[in-house]
Amino acid sequence: MRVFKLMGVDTVFLTNAAGGLNQDYKVGDVMILKDHINMPGFAGTNPLAGPNDERFGVRFPPMSDAYDRELRRLARAAAADLGYDDFLREGVYCVLGGPAFETIAECRMLQQLGADAVGMSTVHEVLVARHSGLRCFALSLITNRAVMDYESRETANHEEVLETGRRRAQQLQELVSTMVARMESHNNNNNKTC
Ligand SMILES: O=P(O)(O)O[C@@H]1C[C@H](O)[C@@H](CO)O1
Ligand SMILES: Nc1nc2[nH]cnc2c(=O)[nH]1
């Protein structure tokens, strides 16, 4: 993220595979991140720990505005125009350390804490990106449903994650490229009027 910042990048798009905790979510849904829960952060694991490099950002950066409101609006509009409303969601992503998938008790707890999806990435990058003042937009592909029921015989597995990724890859590419094209056209129009 810091190399991007030094290269003059101002906006980053992040994607991940995640387990669906929200009981309304289906495998194959695409969730716009509106917020996150940094579970490793509760135990003191944060990429911003240690001496602060003032060249990039302040010691105590806010995170209440981590996921850019305007980019989220753009994503919803692009998804509607592409006919993706059926599988588009917006919710809270919770990061855990991995690499083990969650226990049933952990999934139940995370759902009660307000998480809609659980994964192993993205939040660390967003923390560093926001510290550097980069605008962030992130999507989770719900690749599997978190197991919440002791009667269930299902288990999370990486094969299902990869398979769901393959199934939605084309539409995710379409969504991101539509957003980028609209951002470029917006920027070009603004430059003309300046
Ligand atoms: O997109 P990420 O890397 O967060 O994907 C998660 C974490 C593991 O790479 C994988 C586990 O199936 O999904
Ligand atoms: N932690 C976690 N990461 C995932 N990545 C894809 N699915 C999952 C999941 O169920 N849990």
Can you walk through the features of this model?
By secondary structure, this protein is of the alpha/beta class. It has one domain: Nucleoside phosphorylase domain (Rossmann fold). The chain is 40% helix and 21% strand. The chain contains six helices and five strands. The chain has helices at residues 2-7, 39-42, 69-81, 104-113, 123-131, 158-193, and strands spanning 11-20, 30-38, 88-95, 117-119, 135-145. The chain has a five-stranded mixed beta barrel, surrounded by four helices. α4 (104-113) links the parallel β3 (88-95) and β4 (117-119). α3 (69-81) crosses α6 (158-193). The longest helix is centred in the last third of the chain and has 36 residues, at 158-193. The radius of gyration is 18 Å and the shape is globular. The model has no long low-confidence stretch (mean pLDDT 97). Bound molecules: the ligand O=P(O)(O)O[C@@H]1C[C@H](O)[C@@H](CO)O1 and guanine. The ligand O=P(O)(O)O[C@@H]1C[C@H](O)[C@@H](CO)O1 binds at residues 16-17, 98, 119-121, 158, 161. Keywords: Glycosyltransferase, Transferase. It is an enzyme of class 2 (transferase). This is purine-nucleoside phosphorylase. GO terms for molecular function: purine-nucleoside phosphorylase activity. Pathway: Purine metabolism; purine nucleoside salvage.
Observed structural traits:
EC 2.4.2.1; purine-nucleoside phosphorylase; alpha/beta; transferase; 194 residues; Nucleoside_phosphorylase_d; Rossmann fold; binds the ligand O=P(O)(O)O[C@@H]1C[C@H](O)[C@@H](CO)O1; 5-stranded mixed β-barrel; glycosyltransferase
| Cα distance spanning the termini | 29 Å
Q: Structural class, from secondary structure content?
A: alpha/beta
The CATH C-level class name: Alpha Beta
The percent of residues in helical segments reads 40-55%
EC number: 2.4.2.1
Domain Nucleoside phosphorylase: 2-180
Pfam family, one: PNP_UDP_1
GO molecular function: purine-nucleoside phosphorylase activity
